[in-house]
Amino acid sequence: MLPWRPRSSLADRFAVGRVFLVGDAAHTVSPLGAFGLNTGVADAHNLAWKLAAVHHGEAGAGLLDTYAQEREPVAAATLDQAMRRLADPQLHWGRGPEADAARAAAGVWAAPVVHLGRRYDSAAVVDPRPELPSTVDLAVALGGSPGSRVPHAWVDGISTLDLVASRWTLLVGAAGDRWLAAAAEVGLPAHRVGAPWLPDDGAVLVRPDAIVAMRVTTPVPDPARFLADVLDQVPARPVAVPST
């Protein structure tokens, strides 16, 4: 039996033409922190809806370019966090103020932030905010910003994470009547949400993978036109060519 040796690796590219790498084919991660499987699942979650959209003619092939744009930086950061923990396992397992201070000094993020606090920066996000406002508090790291996972909030006993249900969904604030009407006009599922991360007259557009594609915090003159433009821009929808 050969001795186990820790290693991590990252593919030079996650996508070339029609070939996409996910999971261990794209990256190998030290087991400390249990980041490897979750990172691989997140790869597949990111890619699957994009492949489906292009296959069904709902998006242009350019949407597939955003897979590598979004997942490569996240995988690189995850590998870095895993190796920092491997160098000193107490940075992962330690609890209490002293352990928190040691993690901060070593640049080690809280495990939930590594797993779920990712921020995507690509053409599939409007006005992305890739910087993390917190590497300690997941609730702060999310916050409804473009490029981040939509935060949880209860809506009539259902989590916002279940409301999006693998489809484009608009979440609007308490005073979002104009947004609800606009969503109905463009054929978009919409729900009113009372949450501190969503202003009363604001709205967030959530992708099928539960990532916030757009966030609006101030009124716009024509919400329906605004939504239609974003839905054309973000999925890189193909332009119809008139028949001859």
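Next protein, fold it too.
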Amino acid sequence: MASLTVPPVPTWPRQDAIDLHRAFKGFGCDSTTVINILAHRDATQRALIQQEYRAIFNQDLSRRIASELSGHHKRAMLLWILDPASRDATILKQALTGDVTDLRAATEVICSRTPSQLQILRQTYRARFGCYVEHDVTERTSGDHQRLLLSYLAIPRYEGPEADPSLAALDARELHKAGERRLGTDERAFIRVFSERGWAHMAAVARAYHHMYARPLEAAVKGETSGNFGGALQVPRRKVELKSSERQQQDD
């Protein structure tokens, strides 16, 4: 869904609702029109479209989509019309308690969100599904992977753009001591640093690690960890790279 774009000009939710209804009518659904409308509207616009659709046609748009679309298109559109927190909660619930457990999807959601986003997600999860996300995580995960995910859900982290170079150097030294410097890996140190530090700080840690040990932190993580736990530690790194790329584009 990251490739979906929002038009630069204002849209008319009422007209969108009418056009969607026309696409649903008749023999077979005009899925191309449905996708073209919804995929190019932001969260606020999608919420207004749903309000207009309910007001005009006395029916929930989500139910109509569920009855008219199928397969991947149906799943994508049902997720896309949700607000971000509800979408994350739904993806997480399906990943943890669906017919097939998808720990990769669950990990991606938990480890790529900010603390404030995770706080809203936890509240939304509880409201929508009547249980705590921590309970489902505990039921479906284990070991260091479980401890990392629960730490992400529980521990607040600084979300600002600033980082302390001296503290970043200390964390880089701790990660090196817990991994490449010793026989075996102290996973607790990796969990502490990755779950307690924000994106800007982790970017500084990666720079410090490379400067101090002439080796990328990414390579150290891959060499010292594995499985779901190792994969989870790679999610913040990708987020840091994305943030850095976005910042460079803004500067340009």
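About the second fold: The mean pLDDT is 91.
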